[in-house]
Amino acid sequence: MTAEQERAAVVRWLRELAGPLPEGSIPRGEVWVLNRAADAIEQGQHIKETPNAD
Q1: Is residue 15 part of a domain?
Q2: CA distance 34 to 45
């Protein structure tokens, strides 16, 4: 699997995870974070697990 395919798979997984969840199953802010992470990956940004991590 290429890096591009891996990124696409992660974005797809994040979008699927955030999308079909029943209302209130996870906090609304966490859904926002999932979507923001997917957006950032699609734009080619590096996502860090923790602030200031390298």
Answers
A1: yes
A2: 14
**Across the chain, what does the average pLDDT equal?**
80
Do 27 and 54 touch, CB atoms closer than 8 A?
no
**Does residue 47 belong to any structural domain of this protein?**
no
Statement: the pTM of the whole predicted model exceeds 0.90: no
Q: Number of folded domains in the chain?
A: 1
User: Residue 21 is encoded by which pair of tokens?
Assistant: 């969840």
User: What would the pLDDT profile of 24-47 be if each residue is shown by its tens digit?
Assistant: 676 777 778 888 889 999 998 877
**Is residue 14 within 8 Å of residue 30, measured between CB atoms?**
no
Rounded distance between C-alpha atoms, residue 13 and residue 9, angstroms: 6
Structural element, H or E, at residue 38: helix 28-42
